[in-house]
């Protein structure tokens, strides 16, 4: 099988149920999710070679997230969503919430905004967070213009919170403190 088909040479691409412009909001949304998936893979690759902490749990979670990001893209690729064929379910978002709580317990209290960074794993997980937020914005745009499965938007919203939390947990596991934004006021309170 050849990888090139030439069917997109005129600026159109296929979605399930038709063909659209390559700059269609639907294509932009699932394309940004694909970009996010690449960054998640990069973060996982860096964690896999990191020897100073045990990353097995996070690597397992990131691998599952990569599969679920494909599910998100699949759900968005329908010109008209068929609820019977949607793969992103509320349980996936709920599971992310459990993981967020688990990793948040590994981090010191936070009161101010923090600067992304500290360690390479943390920096890459912050990149995942920001690309995830962009993907979420693209899905919101899509949902304002066309039919769009709500569960994908909810999943991405929670996923960006997950990346924020694991970026902080990565620094904590490596014995590094997050760098607080020094001109910021106290804005966070630990939930009980």
UniProtKB/TrEMBL annotation:
Residues 3-169 form the Cobalamin adenosyltransferase-like domain. Keywords: ATP-binding, Cobalamin biosynthesis, Nucleotide-binding, Transferase. It comes from the Bacteria. Its EC number is 2.5.1.17. It catalyses: 2 cob(II)alamin + reduced [electron-transfer flavoprotein] + 2 ATP = 2 adenosylcob(III)alamin + 2 triphosphate + oxidized [electron-transfer flavoprotein] + 3 H(+); 2 cob(II)yrinate a,c diamide + reduced [electron-transfer flavoprotein] + 2 ATP = 2 adenosylcob(III)yrinate a,c-diamide + 2 triphosphate + oxidized [electron-transfer flavoprotein] + 3 H(+). SUPFAM superfamilies: Cobalamin adenosyltransferase-like (SSF89028). Pathway: Cofactor biosynthesis; adenosylcobalamin biosynthesis; adenosylcobalamin from cob(II)yrinate a,c-diamide: step 2/7. Homotrimer. Belongs to the Cob(I)alamin adenosyltransferase family. This is Corrinoid adenosyltransferase. It comes from Cohnella lupini.
């Amino acid at each position: 099988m050849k990888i090139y088909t030439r069917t997109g040479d005129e600026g159109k691409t296929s979605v399930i149920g038709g063909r659209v412009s390559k700059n269609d909001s639907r294509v932009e949304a699932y394309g940004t999710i694909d970009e996010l998936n690449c960054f998640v893979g990069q973060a996982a690759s860096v964690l896999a070679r990191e020897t100073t902490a045990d990353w097995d749990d996070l690597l397992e979670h990131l691998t599952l997230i990569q599969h679920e990001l494909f599910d998100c893209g699949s759900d968005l690729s329908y010109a008209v969503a068929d609820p019977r064929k949607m793969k992103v379910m509320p349980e996936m978002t709920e599971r992310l919430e459990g993981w967020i709580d688990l990793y948040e317990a590994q981090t010191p209290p936070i009161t101010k905004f923090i600067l992304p960074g500290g360690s390479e794993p943390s920096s890459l997980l912050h990149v995942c967070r920001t690309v995830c937020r962009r993907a979420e914005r693209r899905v919101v745009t899509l949902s304002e213009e066309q039919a769009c499965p709500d569960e994908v938007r909810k999943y991405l919203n929670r996923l960006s919170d997950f990346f924020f939390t694991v970026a902080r947990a990565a620094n904590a596991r490596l014995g590094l403190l997050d760098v607080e934004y020094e001109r910021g006021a106290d804005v966070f309170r630990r939930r009980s």
